[in-house]
Automatic annotation (TrEMBL):
Domain Peptidase M28: 351-537
InterPro entries: PA_dom_sf (IPR046450), PA_domain (IPR003137), Peptidase_M28 (IPR007484), Peptidase_M28B (IPR039373), TFR-like_dimer_dom (IPR007365), TFR-like_dimer_dom_sf (IPR036757)
GO-annotated molecular function: aminopeptidase activity; carboxypeptidase activity; metal ion binding; metallopeptidase activity
Domain (PA): residue spans on this chain: 163-251
Pfam families: PA, Peptidase_M28, TFR_dimer
Similarity comment text for this entry: Belongs to the peptidase M28 family. M28B subfamily.
Its membrane topology: Single-pass type II membrane protein
Record's subcellular location: Apical cell membrane
Species in which this protein is naturally found: Amphiprion ocellaris
Protein name in UniProt: Aminopeptidase NAALADL1
Gene Ontology biological-process annotations: proteolysis
């Protein structure tokens, strides 16, 4: 999550006639036409060396200082200030891009009411307030005291008033409420939950069927602070840990993109669904609070002790709640009361777009993006990524302005708006793109070779590759021990619409902390008022050397995607993942599938065929003496491979998910997601109709793999 960049490769459907039959490239042939050298040109290694040398820590540091000057939540004056910063940089005469502009969308957002803040209180039978939950985080520096720091809240939580006895519901998963309800009647209760385990909004969605009327959520020090709690010497400003009053804000919707314009770009004149038809948002009020208040509430709860997996770092036993507090506590017989005043509003949110036009294949695009909006100052999320993107565009922009370089393919830069509310800017962009220009989708597989070249932060002797392999690796049957790549299976960031909806090969890149040294679920200031320049420069990346390593790595990949004669994708690596998925499916499911007369044989055959096709494709990929039209054809095959895995009808219950290999899954198994989810459902219900769905998803994925393999073979 730290220091992010999202890159995608995208191609227009229009094939330009650049490759008119010219026979083999005759680079040294003096009678060859002058454009032939350009068409045959491959990536220039000396240019990459020059790029790597020019990426500068001080520039990145000053970018971050400027971007985090004021809070810049989507559509606020601070957000507009960052729009202007991006435009000024990308329109600069000496270091800017060919062109840069803003694109506005009218999007549905949710804010607390600054004049009527959300309140959570403990009240006795006479409605006398016994305890008030802190409404703002404690300020340690003037940053946190800025009046533009938004009150912690749950975006898209409905406004409303709820009052009831408190219960502790662990992480708010369906199984947590199920377990609680076995001994308690949850009707009319307020549930307190901790972050983790279930999505933010799901904690309320899962609660409502049990009659719960309101939900609180907090971050347990066990999950974020390695158990530490004191701000006198343990947490920020003394370390990177979350102070007791810190609150993770967030969007509590399930689906991504603008909620009123599903599958349509949210322009002024666009059709909008009625707000009451929105699905996947909390049906009951929910509010996030700090662990200093959660500590007071949880340690006063009565009832039976919760099981050991539910216990956190507080020095008391976490009880279920009677419901309500212990008779011996000062809150005996008291209720928890929630008064939530969030308001939904349609506002203008801007993406800032910039381009460097390609010289040879301007109709092929490499997209590099990062969101711009934050919850508060957002030094790490997202401004670390924007600081890096601005440094990459400064170095590349200058080369373009000086006439030293122009990429083979076009590069599009995107500074997305309103990501924090649900990946809105990037999703709206893909909705316009897919409908207006029929562009196509993809995933980048072979990034290893590029990180060999970049030094690990602060070191001259170790590469990012070696550091990566040391800290996170896997054993590949082909390559031996190699760095581990994660899969883009969920909708964690702006890659979602590109991968899942359009099928564009994508990378989501971050430089993160050593997870062997901390159990922190994410960096502890995430979405709090403490994610500031001071925090980033003191505790995340002093000297900005990690930022520099990310800029070098991302820029190196970007240049190679834009300039390589043949796209640097490796089909065999994709085949390896499919084979892994298949082996897991065989181990976990084959026996039961056979018991239900469902054969996995077709899937095995398809995976084998894909493996062969991948190897064949790689052999086509070597050598440089290739006709331009063949180059174009091979690149089409590589670029469009992920698109072959899209099935628009396979997941009717999952908004905008169409990629049968990477779709989100709730089963938690490293195998084909549709199959895994259908199997989990059939196993628990035992219904024939659910086993039919298992059979269906097995056929969907087998057919997709077979189809994808056929796109890698020779045309006829
Ligand atoms: Zn975020």
């Amino acid at each position: 999550m730290i220091i992010k960049a999202v890159i995608g490769v995208l191609c227009a459907a229009v094939v330009l006639a650049i490759g008119i039959v010219i026979g083999h490239f005759g680079i040294n042939n003096s009678s060859a036409p002058s454009w032939l050298n350009d068409v045959a040109k491959d990536v220039d290694e000396s240019l990459i060396e020059k790029f790597l040398a020019e990426v500068d820590t001080i520039h990145i540091q000053e970018n971050l200082r400027e971007l985090t000057d004021v809070p810049h939540m989507a559509t606020t004056p601070g957000d507009e200030k960052t729009v202007q910063t991006m435009l000024r940089r990308w329109q600069d005469a000496d270091t800017g891009l060919d062109d840069a502009w803003r694109e506005e969308y009218n999007v549905y957002l949710s804010f607390p009411d600054p004049n009527n803040p959300n309140k959570v209180t403990v009240v006795d039978a006479a409605n006398t307030v016994q305890h008030s939950i802190r409404e703002r985080e404690k300020a340690y520096t003037s940053d946190q005291d800025d009046p533009e720091v938004v009150q912690p809240y749950a975006a898209y939580s409905p406004a409303g008033h709820a009052k009831g006895k408190l219960v502790y519901a662990n992480q708010g998963k369906p199984s947590d409420y199920e377990q609680l309800s076995q001994t308690l009647n949850l009707t009319g209760t307020i549930a307190i939950t901790r972050y983790g385990g279930a999505g933010r909004g799901a904690k309320a969605i899962n609660a409502a069927p049990y009659g719960v009327v309101g939900v609180l959520v907090y971050t347990d020090p066990l999950d974020i602070n390695d158990g530490l709690m004191s701000d006198t010497n343990e947490t920020y400003p003394h370390s990177w840990y979350m102070p007791p009053s810190g609150v993770e804000r967030g969007s509590f919707n399930r689906d991504f993109g603008d909620l009123l314009t599903p599958y349509l770009a949210a322009k002024e004149e666009t059709y909008r669904i009625p707000p009451e038809n929105i699905v996947g948002i909390p049906p009951i009020p929910i509010q996030p609070i700090g662990f200093e208040d959660a500590y007071i509430l949880i340690c006063a709860l009565g009832g039976d002790a919760a099981p050991s997996e539910w216990q956190g770092a507080f020095n008391c036993t976490y009880n279920y709640g009677g419901p309500g507090f212990k008779p011996t506590s000062e809150f005996n017989n008291s209720d928890v009361k929630m008064d939530i005043y969030n308001k939904e509003v349609i506002k203008n949110s801007a993406n800032v777009m910039g381009v460097i036009r390609g010289s040879v294949e301007p109709d092929r695009y490499v997209i590099y993006g990062n969101h711009r909006d934050s919850w508060v100052h957002g030094a790490i999320d997202p401004s670390s990524g924007t600081s890096v993107m601005l440094e990459i565009t400064r170095v590349l922009g200058r080369m373009v302005k000086q006439g030293i370089w122009r990429p083979r393919r076009s590069i599009i830069f995107g500074s997305w708006g309103a990501e924090e509310f649900g990946l809105i800017g990037s999703a709206e962009y893909t909705e316009v793109t897919s409908y207006n220009t029929e562009q196509y989708v993809h995933l980048i597989r072979n990034v290893y070779m590029f990180v060999v070249q970049v030094n690990a932060p602060g070191e001259s002797s170790t590469s990012v590759y070696e550091a990566w392999k040391l800290h996170s690796n896997r054993t590949s049957p082909t390559h031996g021990v190699i760095p581990r790549l994660g899969y883009l299976t969920g909708a964690g960031s702006d890659y979602a619409a590109f991968v899942h909806y359009l099928g564009i090969s994508s990378i989501d890149m971050s430089y993160t902390y050593d997870r062997s040294k901390t159990n922190a679920r994410i960096y502890p200031a995430y979405h709090t008022a403490y994610d500031t320049f001071d925090y980033a420069s003191k505790y995340i990346d002093p000297g900005f050397v990690s930022h520099q390593a990310v800029a070098r790595t991302a820029g190196n990949i970007l240049i190679r995607l834009a300039d390589s004669l043949l796209l640097p994708f490796n089909c065999s690596d994709y085949a390896e993942i499919l084979e892994d998925y298949l082996n897991t499916a065989v181990t976990l499911y084959q026996q039961q599938l056979e018991a239900h007369k469902i054969s996995i044989g077709k899937c095995k055959t398809a995976t084998d065929v894909f493996g062969d096709a991948g190897e064949y494709c790689n052999t086509q990929h070597t050598g440089r003496n290739i006709m331009p039209l063949k180059v174009r054809r091979i690149n089409d095959q590589l670029m469009l491979l992920d698109r072959a895995f899209l099935d628009p009808l396979a997941f009717p219950d999952k908004y905008a998910f169409r990629h049968v290999i990477w779709t989100s899954s709730s089963a938690g198994k490293a195998t084909f997601p549709g199959l895994a989810d259908a199997f989990a459902q059939a196993e628990s219900s035992g219904l024939d109709s659910d086993w039919d769905k298992v059979h269906y998803h097995l056929s969907v994925v087998s057919q997709a793999i077979e189809g994808a393999a056929s796109t890698l073979a020779d045309v006829i």
